[in-house]
Design brief:
The protein is an alpha/beta fold. The protein has a domain at 405-496: ANL, C-terminal domain (GMP Synthetase, Chain A, domain 3, 2-Layer Sandwich), CATH 3.30.300. The chain has an 8-stranded mixed sheet with strand order 2-1-11-10-12-13-14-15, with helices on both faces. A hairpin with a 5-residue loop joins strand 14 and strand 15 (309-313).
Length: 502
């Protein structure tokens, strides 16, 4: 089974069902299957074949959907990359992935127009120098039938990690991995042919692509795409398209809640408000549920390398356990919290989350050492430190890479960051360890504030809420934190810029 077979099957079963909607553009399953066939033939004509890597540099638009299935139809490997990438980042992926082609959207063309890599280059709209017109290719009358050569266990997709600790890694998935994970979300989130899946988060990320994009395709639902996210666009799209499922980062819900406080909206079609990437606190959940006038919130936790899959916190569990990532792994997945030797830890003891399931990646492309390091047998190490409470619910403490060891004591930056963010005027913070000759590491914080923060008053506040050894010895105010294209803070850059304090 693979994505190409699923698409064709939907086209035969429900030819007139809407497959994809993007603004005023609509396409049925029959129409989508036909145009995918045309593009697949043209890719073959330009010598793209099974196993070749094809980069997709696009926002969430219909051309992304067409390209994704056409690449799979000829047995090539889809490499979707973040629409915010710079030309330098695009070049890195081209060279690291050994890509044979790139398909770019005209909205993003300025970032790649000067690429001189000797690969097939396609862009939507008109062609440009050595860039062929994607739009013109779809007008070609090529009707040779293509039978997808992809086998279940062969690579079909490569996603790049966010690179928060160094250069991004290419994560390889087979058709079996992708279909299993998509099947999981269909069951857990009750997707059906009449579902309408709202896709506003970038399809270059594993959760939007593998869970909700492919989940919709498995059941023959309608995919509603927007090229970007804004609270206003979210509300307008739900009202217009009567969508039923939405996945977003917590910040998407918090920003939308601010807008909903000042206007009314009909969001009654929504049955599943799903968030992931980070948990919402108990106070945030109460606030969002009240403003959205809905109890239909679900938290999903997972790792790109695991599909993604990991755990979930159901609708009925939010009242008591908001902030937790749940207590069970979803369909096709197992989860444990273990010590350094791989032994399960006791309740309320901190250990590392490891995941085993059908979605676990084939490995990192061209990086056998990193692949070996991340696997513990057939379990994947997540790098997330967590503990279970007395009821079995899992609470993420911090990233293992971010753990600070000062004077032999473990300090978790996430706990400190949560306290600092409660101080008036502070909008963002990054807490990390810097070298110290006496203590091994000492705690430093970089804060972003709406105004100049009085450090003495902040220190007094922290003394009331944190143990002495957890209070940052150094606090600096800055204009911005270093982030990657996915918006994640790059703490390794902050650490690398440091000199050991005297």
């Amino acid at each position: 089974m693979n994505s190409s077979i699923l698409l064709t099957r939907n086209a035969h079963k429900s030819p007139h069902q809407e497959a994809v909607v993007c603004g005023d553009r609509r396409m049925t399953y029959a129409e989508l299957d036909n145009v995918v066939h045309t593009l697949a033939n043209n890719l073959r004509r330009h010598h793209i074949s099974k196993g070749d890597k094809v980069i997709l540099f696009m926002p969430n638009v219909i051309e992304f959907v067409i390209s994704y299935f056409a690449i799979h139809r000829i047995g090539a490997i889809v490499v979707p990359i973040n629409a915010k990438f710079t030309d330098k980042e695009v070049k890195y992926v081209i060279n690291h992935s050994n890509a044979s082609a790139i398909i770019a959207h005209e909205y993003l063309f300025d970032a790649v127009k000067n690429l001189n890599e000797p690969i097939l280059k396609l862009k939507t709209g008109e062609g440009n120098k050595d860039w062929l017109s994607f739009t013109d290719l779809l007008k070609s009358d090529l009707d040779k039938k293509i039978k997808c050569p992809l086998q279940n266990d062969e690579p079909c997709t490569m996603l790049y990690t966010s690179g928060t600790t160094g250069q991004p890694k290419g994560v390889l998935f087979s058709s079996h991995n992708v279909i299993s994970i998509a099947h999981m979300i269909c069951v857990e989130m009750e997707m059906k042919p009449e579902s309408r899946i709202l896709l506003m988060m970038p399809l270059s990320h594993s959760a939007p692509l593998h869970l909700f994009f492919m989940g919709g395709i498995i059941v023959g639902a309608t995919l509603v795409l927007t090229p970007s996210f804004s609270p206003k666009l979210l509300i307008e799209t739900v009202e217009k398209e009567k969508t039923t499922h939405f996945f977003g980062a917590p910040v998407a819900y918090l920003l939308t809640a601010e807008l909903l406080k000042s206007q009314t909206a009909d969001l009654s079609s929504m049955k599943w408000w799903i968030y992931g990437g980070a948990p919402l606190s108990a106070n945030e959940v109460r606030y969002v549920k009240q403003v959205f006038q809905s109890d239909d919130f679900v938290c999903v936790y997972g790792l790109t390398e695991a599909g993604p899959s990991g755990s979930l916190l159901g609708k009925e569990e939010h009242d008591e356990k908001a902030g937790s990532i749940g207590k069970r792994a979803p369909l096709h997945t197992e989860l444990r919290i273990v010590d350094e030797e791989g032994n399960d830890v006791a309740p309320n003891e901190v250990g590392e989350i490891i995941i085993r399931g059908e979605g676990n990646m084939l490995g990192y492309y061209r990086d056998d050492e990193a692949t070996k390091d991340v696997f513990m047998g057939d379990w994947i190490r997540t790098g997330d430190l967590a503990k279970r409470d007395e009821d079995g619910y899992i609470w993420v403490v911090d990233r293992k890479d971010d753990l600070i060891i000062s004077g032999g004591v473990n300090i978790y930056p996430k706990e400190i960051e949560e306290v600092i963010l409660r101080y008036p005027g502070i909008q963002e913070v990054a807490v990390f360890g810097i070298p110290n000759q006496s203590w091994g590491e000492t705690v430093k914080a970089v804060i972003i504030g709406s105004e100049d923060i009085d450090m003495n008053q902040l220190h007094t506040f922290l003394q009331k809420h944190l143990a002495k050894h957890k209070i940052p010895r150094i606090i600096e105010q800055s204009e911005a934190l270093p982030r990657n294209a996915s918006g994640k803070v790059l703490k390794h850059q902050l650490r690398q810029a440091e000199v050991s304090p005297s």
